[in-house]
Amino acid sequence: MSPYIVGVLVPLLVTLLYQNSKNTKKRGVPVDVGGEPGYAIRNSRFPILLKTAWEGVFTLAQLFELACKKHADKYLLGTRTLISKDTQVSADGRSFEKLHLGEYEWLTYGEVFEKVCNFASGLAHLGHSSEERVAIFADTRAEWFMALQGSFRRNISVVTIYASLGEEALCYSLNETEVTTVICGNKELKKLVEVSGQLDTVKRVICMDDDIPSSASLVAQSGRWRVVSMADVEKLGRENPVDDVLPLAADVAVIMYTSGSTGLPKGVMMTHGNVLAVVSSVRTIVPGLEGNDVYLAYLPLAHILEIAAENLVAGVGSAIGYGSPLTLTDTSNKIKRGTKGDATVLRPTVMAAVPAILDRVREGVRKKVDEKGGIAKKLFDFAYARRISAINGSWFGARGLEMLLWNFLVFRKVRAILGGRIRFLLSGGAPLSGDTQRFINICLGAPIGQGYGLTETCAGGTFSEFDDTSVGRVGNPVPCSYIKLVDWPEGGYLISDSPMPRGEIVIGGPNVTVGYFKNEAKSKEVYKVDERGMRWFYTGDIGQFHADGCLEIIDRRKDIVKLQHGEYVSLGKVEAALIVSPYVDNMMLHADPFHSYCVALIVVAQPVLEEWASKRGIAFTSFAELCEKEEAIKEVQASLVKAAKAARLEKLEIPAKIKLLSDPWTPETGLVTAALKLKREAIRKAFSEELSKLYE
What we know:
By secondary structure, the chain is an alpha/beta fold. The protein has three domains: 3-49 and 352-420 and 422-556, Luciferase, Domain 3 (Luciferase, domain 3, Roll), CATH 2.30.38.10; 60-349, ANL, N-terminal domain (Rossmann fold, 3-Layer(aba) Sandwich), CATH 3.40.50; 564-694, GMP Synthetase, Chain A, domain 3, CATH 3.30.300. It has a nine-stranded mixed sheet, with helices on both faces. Strands 9-8-7-5-6-10-11-21 form an eight-stranded mixed sheet, with helices on both faces.
């Protein structure tokens, strides 16, 4: 049966059959484990931890070769053609790049495998040995994936670096790992040139683009580097083929530098076996994932979530079309007005997303609905309410034929935003709000597999199954992981708590990574090996197990701050509750132990606040000026209070004072990671003056 049909029928059948059996299915069951005493759960369907889902396959290189030989004539990697590039200047003088992109051009599995093998041979002829490390420093694109696979065919460990990484962290990552070859794009090569004098070991730079910047050519002429295009490396390898040097499961595939929410980034060492265990686990969870899907790739490939997703999609014989967060939809910032975004052209069936992206999709839909008003808005609100009541178990809600009717009349247009064919979404990287999860479920008509994992566990930990309609949880253990809760008495979380065991989350299994590169002290602090040889990672997150074996994240050790009078405030929990306000694009709660109340920095959703001001006749010459107005501050504050009450927050958890910010936080500003997580220390430092004034 076609996966598209499965994607439509499975959620419908599950909804009908599952309503009267909620919370009765055991998704995770207790398991006897070693190590520190705690309460441990495993996947109910897998009594033995899963290492591979492909017979005879134990490395990512083996998986890729198997898929390429099996699906040689099928499409694998697609990239949009660039028709034109324009620069537009806004009223306040800021310039914006606008792109007109065409259709996708595709490479088959066979063509990609040939390029990968040629690139691997080319690396060898450039003088790069298997003992040396390669770094990939670029935005997500087809060449990134091919460079990764080419390196694997020479058993070369790949250091992944976010394209948005700052100069200090970039130099630190390259020098610490003693990288000799950097593979990057034209844009990133210009950054490398600027810090070339600070790089100790780099000998070769391979540019994914043919147009090598003149500044890089000057560095090459000085004899410091050899700079060559990726196409030339492939040509060199094609003319001088060499034998493969394939890795073993225990060999390090990737040293992944976290984008560093605190301090300098840490390099997490991942073996082929580590990553394959997670890839194999997700294969068993997503229904119908066997070769006919189309995946839209736009998250950073320097993030383990995206590396695992693309290796899985390639492993099952499906297609990967590349895009970017700024060209994702028809209304994305970089898309020229009147032209199409990536999702409209590609029409993907599966996607991965971080909560911040899904929050933006939800806000965009709500804004369009509110702008239309009238009958259209009333129809949308009525249809949405009917679907909510159905999902929540009321037999008076829309189901069966009525559900299909609302899908056709109302939600079909919403689904067109992401191409109209999405059948499964994977969300990870941060907690997803229940409101956004429900909204996406209903409007896109697709289940969301909300996952929980860390770079240190190759993104593996838990994953919500497609028939789990609950919100606010992150699912049951994936087949390759045990999840254990251990007591944290200082925070008041114990496995003996009622009605659910609570404690710090510890993850064990073949997906738990080797440790931090050249950081034995930190590795010993958070990695433990028990008496049975099982490797465990202590996450610092606090969770609780539900009766069906599913995990809920309720706190984080580092995010808990004690106020002046001894009350504890969980920063992440409060932020997740308040960010649902329509006025909030991003925010950071700040708690000071020397004060009895919290304050917050609010990055304001510009269209929403401007629309509010316009309706009330509030004059302003710039958005920054509007953010300073007392009326605007009071309106946003009232919205936060409303969201706090809905989430049943305590009074002390609601920010008593707020500062509205007009400029967004992006990875380029250094205030959020590439996965859009807050970099608290960087934000505190950048806005120290504003935070001080809030406490005056």
